[in-house]
Write a structure and sequence with these properties.
single chain, 5-stranded mixed β-sheet, HECTD1/TRIP12-like, Leucine-rich Repeat Variant, ubiquitin protein ligase activity, transferase, 4-stranded mixed β-sheet, EC 2.3.2.26
């Protein structure tokens, strides 16, 4: 078989021009396989254009897509003239010149058609041209003529899609298929594939009838990858419209298609999967045809693809489609059911459901997205394998046959129930919506119904099914409750002895009693899924039929199975049959543990604040400690306690009252008793901490704190009732709004009518409907309404007020009309973060002030850009209050949040539909009353003198969570508030574990319980932060942030912001990162920074937003030789810009993501250079020159921390202090801009510096993380000071104290800062340190190191940072998480991670020898080499948070077409904008290693075309 290599010059020129001028790659011959197309440019991180990086310029032909080759070459409107076409047609018919005339004519025709589209072709006589082309396509004597004729047909279909009908009509299909069934020339065959693919798009049925499927698949293995993709695309086109009588033709292709599922090319596999899904859909109505499909191995091949980590390699749509294919087969084919059970389908389904991203998908899936959701498809498949007990057709023969399979082969049911039942429970507990929850309960109910008692016991042995069912009974959807009750009934029928006590202990009986009471009150609402004024659930089918088989017609699935009193009747039946008073009493109702715990907690609560005398207080505290020990022993040593018992015991509230000295709920403390109250709180906290952290050196899993944490997390999941609000049918569109500004907004609006409260005669009426942006605060409503309703002294509205209001709104309207998009962005950003920022400030007012200096005030501009809280906080008192349906609205929320808050309660998950937006909401307004004084504000009077704390054995105030109320609107009488409060305490205890233990050691040393300074050393084993994440709440927040309305506006239900402010640790770092970008910068920023992984749902609106955000880029030209100067200019111009910075280097062609990432890397390196005087460890400050042998960069093994500068000494030298301040100001701007734009900095800040960024107070303990030797010495000195103070309090003699057997005086320490001899702590720096002034020395050293010595630098950093966005927005992160957010990750890679997260394309697959060698090489790279490789490929030496998996675009490796004959002579090159590595096929691994290391070392420092 020969490959035809002949090409005409014009054809080559045509091919080249097409590649450069077309935005879509059009493969046209086998040359497409030798010259890969440019990488796809659909990812948002591609930025504005491609940039290539290489060791040399222009080494490949497909680097830049901005070629101007086409310019001036042709004009598509002029090339198609009648005379030219006539000449071409004449040449086609001229067969007397030996074929040369025909070749010339075909060449010219291909050239003409290659640049034409249908609207530019004009006159083109298809009936004249097509017949000779078809004839020439069968011209076997001349392969060149055949090739060009088929290519002309391909181009004709491309330029004129309507020509496909004429081509088919004139008999081209048999000719083209013949070229594939009898391959003589591979080029001709490849071109035939291209032609058939074009024709099949418009003529699928004729292609099917002509045998196209068999033709393209018969010899598919002979073709390279690109032609194979074309072949299966042809089959996919044909399968779009399969006629009913095509089963024989299609069935013959199924074995080949199934075998193709095993190929490594992902695009090929996805197209084949689409073909099989369409074929299955076509045959779904025939059980016989489905049985035949199964016999061809479609189940085995599909299941293998799904099971082998398919969700990583396949798109979401393809993955869901394959699961749906199995579900459709199982619906009507008994062969499929039998085969699936034999292949242990349950293990595969379990693996899918247990994966973290699948569990997240299982949560709040919107109704319109369910058909493409993987978890939904898995649950539908499971419901088809185990027939449901409640059926639409009782005598369905297929369902009866499935039952027989389970009865005849009980091992199938055993395997299925053991795998699926526990994971179904896990899916629901992760926070599933009503539909997913109903599906899981349906599976569990069916398993319980069909299982024998032995199988059932084995299935639930690892699952607390009783607690699970009790939780389901607390839900509000009647379908879920009814099915749960049916499950309870089945379990009691089969295993009454096992479940009676368990149901009592776990609260199932209690929940049934509660359900009976609830149903009696609201039985009228069972048949209705929403009240008239509630959020509308737009569902087309009742939940009873959500998982029906497709055999049930739509008309049969409209009637709900639930009757008006179904739940009440079933609950009453279960109660009277299984849970009679005699049966419940025989089980003692409550367990002995619960009764004992209730007694202990009651005693604890009664004595928590009883104290009359000092001796009585001491005795009372001792008694309380003993009771507390008994309570804690119940957790560590007692029998297992159920979540229901834990909540019922009230332990959370009793512990909260104990730790707050009885002021937990009242919060009132007189100013006189405040100091005593705080001292008691601190002492109790220390006692409680010592109990919870007993044996801190042991494993964290064995600590009592870990046990308590798990109990409280389970209680939180059980008590959780926060709704997820989903928007149905939401589309992004321009809307006119009246509030907060008149103009056009992208946000949706609520229709509001303002109505004056009748008894308020001081206000005027205002009766008109206005549009209110959903992100509007109540301050905005008041600002709009007050000038219109305010009456002057004479009782009438003043004209000046009206004029002022009109002038204000007209001015705003003018601005809005000039730039409506900018105005919209400002409004949404301000409003979106106002709630969370306000909550943060509410928290602050309960904390002791740590600095009496005036706080920095935010400008109006910062407020507008989302960098501060709502202006109502700390500003003028509100003039108006608003209510809706008689309920006063919370003014700290947005209007959208307030309306949702008023309407919530009907269901756990609510859907915002069309009725929500069309309804007119009547807001009643009245004059605001004088606010009452907040008793909790008295806590601001906490004494701040360090002497106060030191006298009582505490080094300083560093436990801010103790005296703070939770900044959320949850009712304090709700058990949920108690649980959240204690979780806050636990997290604070874990966070401050080192300080707590250090304080305990210092106190022990002071009192003489330990004598050796070495015993002050603390080794902590804290609980991992991930243990504080509540998976249910985290999944709820994740799903809430995926809602299209939230992605567009950033507006979320109020609970999201309140919980984020009160207990951010409840959410994972990934969830908080998304929340941070959405609420701080708005949806446009989150989309541009790839925070949302886009799937098939909502693609159009998201793409619209992306294109809109693309206009906000700010391009800046940088001088590579002076990075810092460029950074100064850049920040001066763009620090406050809402646009994303895009860097281009002067005199270099590259621009986009790669150069931008490199700029931030290089800029971060500039700040680490010696001689700047910024950091500790900079040895060249104060006139010193750089020491020989030292690095160019500051050596900071424990991270960079500001170098202290004296406030009293005028230090001059290499780095003047004003310049240091400027550098910190610039650094603050750069860090903030990097976070805002999602860029990575390569700068190793110390942990203490991250605490400063988070505005956390530093203490003496933090010095050890900066300078371990200095920190340890200062801590030992502090212990000596405490010992001296204690001895003086009891005996007055402390003269014999010494430090490590040496007198303090003999240490010869003067009052200069250690390590900084030019920093005088006193004006008399020659004064020596002794035991008398040691305390003064320690205080001054600590203050100089982490206080006044760095305060001006820190203020400058914060000032610069706040110019970009508010520093307070970062306080939802920990210091370790902030480092990940700012500096990304640089962990080692394992082979599996590399394979999973790197794409191989255009000549390479995951098993290619070159690829295997490449993966081995980069896995073996040392740390510096790995950093250089990442810098070379991505522009940054670090990966983004999340590692390789989070790299966007995904790292892609393609085969580089080398310019020379020997690939070993070529070097790798990259396109950093696309993370696109072009790797030559080297002959050996060692050769590849050498070339790769050379490229990443020498190829740095410039961007050119590659």
């Amino acid at each position: 078989m020969d490959r035809n290599r002949k090409r005409e010059a014009a054809d080559e020129r045509s091919q080249e021009k097409r590649a450069c001028s077309s935005s879509e790659f059009r493969p046209c011959s086998s040359t497409s396989s030798s010259q890969p197309p440019p990488p796809p440019q659909t990812d948002s991180e591609m930025e504005s254009s491609s940039s290539g990086r290489s060791d040399r310029a222009g080494d490949s032909g497909y680097g830049s897509c901005d070629s101007d080759d086409f310019a001036g070459g042709y004009d598509s409107r002029n090339i198609v003239g009648r005379g030219r076409l006539q000449r071409v047609f004449s040449g086609l018919l001229d067969d007397g010149s030996g074929g040369s005339a025909q070749l010339a004519a075909l060449t010219e025709l291909c050239e003409v058609l290659s640049f034409c589209m249908e609207d530019a072709v004009g006159y083109f006589p298809l009936e004249t041209v097509v017949p000779p082309l078809v004839k020439l396509a069968s011209h076997e004597s001349s392969p060149d003529v055949m090739l060009l004729a088929i290519r002309a047909l391909t181009y004709l279909c491309d330029a004129m899609p309507r020509s496909a009908e004429a081509i088919v009509r004139h008999g081209a299909l048999p000719v083209l298929c013949g070229r594939l069934l009898a391959i003589e020339y591979l080029d001709v065959a490849e071109q035939s594939l291209q032609a058939l693919e074009k024709i099949s798009r418009k003529q699928p049925v004729p292609c099917l009838q002509a045998g196209t499927i068999a033709a393209v698949l018969t010899y598919i293995d002979f073709f390279p990858t690109n032609p194979q993709r074309v072949a299966v695309s042809t089959v996919a086109n044909v399968c779009k419209k399969l006629p009913p009588d095509c089963s024989t033709i299609v069935m013959e292709s199924v074995p080949i298609l199934c075998s193709l599922l095993q190929y490594e090319d992902h695009k090929l596999v996805e197209t084949v999967a689409a073909c099989l899904v369409r074929i299955t859909d076509c045959f779904a109505g025939s059980s016989e045809l489905l049985d035949e499909l199964c016999k061809h191995g479609i189940i085995q091949k599909s299941l293998n693809l799904i099971a082998n980590d398919g969700h990583r390699s396949l798109s979401r749509a393809t993955y869901s489609g394959l699961i749906g294919l199995l579900r459709k087969l199982a619906t009507s084919s008994l062969v499929a059911v039998q085969t699936l059970f034999e292949l242990n389908i349950s293990r595969t389904l379990m693996g899918i459901l247990m994966s973290s991203d699948m569990l997240r998908d299982s949560a709040y899936v919107s109704v319109q997205d369910m058909q493409t959701n993987q978890v939904y498809e898995v649950l539908k498949l499971a419901n088809q394998l185990i027939p449901p007990v409640l059926r639409d057709v009782p005598d369905d023969q297929i369902e009866l046959a499935k039952e027989k399979i389970l009865v005849d082969q009980p091992n199938f049911l055993h395997e299925f129930s053991t795998d699926i039942l526990p994971v179904s429970v896990q899916v629901v507990n992760s926070g599933a919506n009503a539909y997913v929850c109903y599906a899981c309960v349906s599976i569990i109910n069916s398993i319980a119904y069909f299982s024998t008692p032995d199988i059932l016991l084995d299935s639930i042995k690892s699952t607390n099914i009783s607690s699970f069912l009790a939780g389901l009974l607390s839900r509000k959807d009647p379908h879920v409750i009814f099915l749960t009750l049916k499950t309870v009934e089945v379990l009691m029928q089969k295993l009454p002895a096992v479940f009676l006590s368990s149901f009592i202990k776990e609260g199932v009986v209690y929940a049934i009693d509660a359900a009976l009471l609830v149903q009696e009150k609201c039985s009228d609402s069972v048949s209705e899924h929403s009240n008239d004024h509630m959020v509308v659930r737009d569902t087309s089918r009742c939940m009873c039929h959500a998982f029906n088989s497709s055999r049930v017609s739509a008309s049969e699935s409209k009637t709900c199975r639930l009757q008006k009193d179904s739940i009440q009747s079933l609950a009453r039946h279960i109660k009277t049959t299984y849970f009679t008073h005699e049966a419940v009493d025989s089980e003692m109702g409550f367990t002995e543990t619960l009764q004992k715990l209730k007694i202990l907690c009651t005693v604890l609560n009664d004595n928590v604040d009883s104290c009359s005398t000092s001796d009585g207080c001491l005795q009372n505290e001792e008694n309380l400690t003993q009771i507390l020990l008994q309570v804690m022993r119940e957790f560590s040593e007692g029998e297992s306690m159920s979540t229901f018992e834990f909540i019922e015991s009230g332990i959370a509230r009793f512990l909260a009252c104990y730790l707050s000295n009885g002021k937990y709920l009242s919060g009132t403390t007189s100013a006189i008793d405040l100091s005593s109250h705080i001292l008691t709180v601190l002492k109790r906290f220390q006692i409680f901490s010592s109990i919870c952290l007993s044996n801190p050196g042991q494993s964290c899993d064995n600590m009592l704190l870990a046990v308590l944490l798990k109990k409280f997390q389970n209680a939180l999941s059980s008590l959780d009732n926060f709704p997820v609000i989903l928007s149905h049918g939401f589309k992004l569109r321009n809307t006119y709004t009246d509030i907060p500004v008149r103009g056009i907004t992208k946000n949706p609006c609520l229709r509001v009518r303002f109505v004056r409260q009748n008894e308020d005669t001081n206000l005027s009426d205002l009766d008109n409907v206005v549009n209110v942006d959903i992100s509007s605060s109540f301050d905005a409503l008041e600002g709009y309404l007050w000038p219109k309703v305010n009456k002057g002294k004479n009782g009438h509205r003043t004209e000046s007020a009206d004029r002022k209001a009109d002038d204000t709104t007209s001015g705003i309207k003018h601005v809005s009309e000039k730039n409506p998009i900018e105005t919209h962005t400002n409004i949404s950003q301000e409003s979106c973060i106002s709630n969370s920022a306000e909550v943060s400030r509410q928290e602050e007012q309960y904390l002791p002030a740590v600095d009496s200096s005036p706080k920095q005030t935010m400008s109006a501009k910062e407020v507008t850009e989302g960098s501060s809280a709502s202006p109502s906080i700390g500003s003028a008192k509100p003039k108006l209050t608003f209510s809706l349906r008689g309920k006063q609205l919370d003014s700290s929320m947005t209007i959208y949040q307030a309306v949702l808050e008023e309407q919530k309660g009907a269901e756990f998950d609510m859907v915002v539909g069309s009725k929500f937006w069309s309804e007119v909401y009547k807001l009643t307004y009245k004059s605001a009353e004088e606010p009452k004084a907040n008793d909790s504000e008295m806590l601001n009077c906490v004494p701040q003198s360090s002497v106060f704390w030191n006298k009582h054995g505490f080094s300083d105030w560093k436990y801010p969570f103790l005296l703070a109320e939770l900044p959320c609107k949850i009712d304090k009488l709700n058990a949920l508030y108690d649980v959240l409060f204690m979780l806050k305490i636990f997290e604070g205890m874990n966070h401050y574990l080192f300080q707590l233990l250090s304080d305990e050691r210092l106190n022990s040393f002071a009192e003489g319980r330990i004598e050796n300074f070495d015993d002050l050393k603390v080794i902590v084993s804290s609980i991992p932060q991930v243990e504080f994440v509540n998976s249910k709440l985290n999944d709820k927040l994740e799903q809430q942030m995926q809602d299209p309305l939230v992605l567009t506006t950033g507006c979320m239900p109020s609970w999201c912001g309140q919980l984020m402010a009160a207990c951010p640790f409840l959410f994972s770092f990934e969830a908080r990162r998304k929340y941070f970008y959405l609420t701080t910068f708005g949806s446009l920023r989150s989309q541009q920074n790839n925070i949302q992984n886009l799937d098939g749902s909502g693609t159009n609106s998201l793409n619209d937003r992306h294109s809109y955000s693309g206009s906000l880029r700010k391009k800046f030209i940088v001088n590579r030789n002076n990075i810092l100067e460029s950074a100064v200019k850049m920040m001066k111009l763009h620090a406050q810009s809402k646009g994303t910075l895009e860097v281009e280097y002067a005199e270099e062609v590259g621009t986009g993501l790669g150069p931008t990432m490199e700029f931030f890397t290089l800029a971060s390196h500039e700040f680490q250079k010696v001689g700047l005087g910024m950091w500790r460890g900079d040895l060249s400050y104060a006139g010193r020159s750089t020491i020989d042998g030292y690095s160019e960069f500051v050596l900071a093994p424990f991270g960079l921390f500001p170098r202290p500068w004296s406030t009293s000494t005028d230090v001059s030298g290499v780095a003047e202090f004003p310049e240091v301040i400027k550098m910190f100001l610039l650094l603050g701007k750069l860090v903030a801009k990097a976070i805002k734009d999602g860029r990575i900095l390569d700068i190793p800040f110390s942990r203490a510096f991250y605490k400063i960024i988070l505005e956390q107070e530093l203490s003496i303990c933090d010095i050890q993380s900066i300078d371990p030797e200095l920190g340890r010495t200062m801590l030992e000195f502090q212990a000596l000071v405490n010992r001296k103070r204690f001895l003086e309090s009891i005996s007055g003699d402390s003269s014999n104290l010494c430090y490590r057997n040496t007198s303090v005086k003999d240490l010869c320490l003067d009052f200069t800062l250690p390590g900084f001899p030019d920093y005088a702590l006193l004006s008399e720096s020659t004064k020596m340190v002794n035991i008398v002034n040691l305390e003064e020395y320690v205080t001054m050293v600590v203050d100089a190191t982490i206080g006044s010595g760095i305060s001006r630098q820190i203020d400058a950093f914060k000032s610069g940072f706040n110019e970009v966005f508010s520093l307070k927005a970062l306080q939802i992160f920990t210091k370790d998480e902030l480092e990940r957010l700012l500096c990304g990750e640089q962990d080692c890679w394992d082979f599996t991670e590399l394979v999973d997260h790197i794409n191989f394309d255009h000549g390479y697959t995951g098993s290619s020898p070159t690829v295997v060698s490449f993966l081995e090489i980069i896995q073996e790279l040392e740390r510096d080499q790995r950093r250089a490789f990442l810098q070379f490929v991505t522009g940054s030496p670090r990966l983004p948070p999340g590692g390789l998996a989070a790299l966007k675009p995904k790292l892609t490796v393609v085969r580089k077409q080398h310019s020379s004959c020997d690939a070993d002579m070529d070097l790798p090159s990259v396109m950093t904008c696309a993370n696109y590595l072009k790797l030559p096929p080297y002959s050996s691994k060692e050769k590849m290693r050498h070339k790769l290391l050379y490229a990443i070392t020498e190829g740095q420092g410039s961007f050119h075309l590659s």
